[in-house]
Amino acid sequence: MTILKSVKSISPGKSILFGEHAVVYGYPAIAMAVSITSSAIIRKLNEPNLILDLKDNDLILEASNLKELNSSIPSKYSQYGECLHIFQKKFDLQIENIEIILQSELFPGAGLGSSASLSVALVSGLNSYYETGLNKNGINEIAYELEKIIHGTPSGIDNTITTFGNAIYYQKGEFNFIDLKRGIPLLITYSNIEHNTKEAIDRIRKLKEKNPQKVQKILENIGKITEEGKKELKRGNYQEIGELMNLNQKYLAELKVSNKNISQIVDISTHNGAYGSKLTGAGLGGCVISIGEKDILKKIADILKDKGFRSFLAENDKKGVRIE
């Protein structure tokens, strides 16, 4: 097999810094791109083949044409075949003689936007390979269509933050970018449990039905924390951001979407010098994000490793999707 041309696109992951769950009830939330990435490599082959290599799933699919490839893709990965179909139809292309390699450093099912990150990387890679001229808005639009295949009615935040990078303040479907003044060192720790968005949302809904005033007050307080967080992000005051994260975590625990593993990670992180630590995303599993000085976070990662938790040292990503 001879490789005649190759393009590599990388896209960041995402974290929810403030406001998860309260956003469902109309309050704001802030998402931030993180420097843990997904990649799409598109290579031209000198053979009449189409190859889709899903590295993280140990799955290689090979076909003689796009129709054959799409029919062989398992339904849970059908967004990738749909992406190829969109490009072929939208730009009047012949999708042939290429190998596509998709891979992500992100923990799957952990609230880090791994599906959106992979979709965005693939769209960007195809755009570059076929020179179709899409800007980031165009890449984001196609990636959103792919997210619909996976999630039904997604908010669009995952594909938007992984396309554009930086941070986004969002409320009731409206997105506003926050330009972060400097890098934020992060420690992202997997709780060893996949998150369960539906169960978490249902749990809060039932809690709200049982104790409407108490839960409404908690959601209102999370909304206020998010507003304060937006101000402190603009100021670059990361110690204050950490304190707000700790308070946000306290309220999420009161909403019953934390658990023993998350609490253990948060406690270890805050007791060993992190400015702040909280679950990110749905909760009941997934990941914990902590911010602090880089050397302190390295030490915390070692302590967590001894307790059986895997961590990534990272920082905020300001670039979004790009070609390497």
The domain count comes to 2
Enter the CATH topology name of the largest domain: Ribosomal Protein S5, domain 2
Distance between the termini: 23 Å
What is the N-to-C order of secondary-structure elements (H for helix, E for strand)?
EEEEHHEHHHEEEHHHHEEHEE
What's the CATH architecture name of the largest domain? Answer: 2-Layer Sandwich
List low-confidence stretches.
Answer: none
Largest sheet properties: 8 strands, mixed
- How many helices does DSSP assign? 10
The residue-averaged pLDDT reads 95
Give the C-level CATH assignment of the largest domain.
Alpha Beta
Number of strands: 12
Specify Rg, calculated over alpha carbons: 20 Å
Protein structure class:
alpha+beta
Q: Rough shape?
A: globular
Oligomer: single chain
- Tell me the fraction of residues in β-strands, as a range: 25-35%
List keywords for this structure.
Ribosomal Protein S5, domain 2, 324 residues, 10 helices, 44% helix, Alpha-Beta Plaits, four-stranded antiparallel beta sheet, alpha+beta, eight-stranded mixed beta sheet, 2 domains
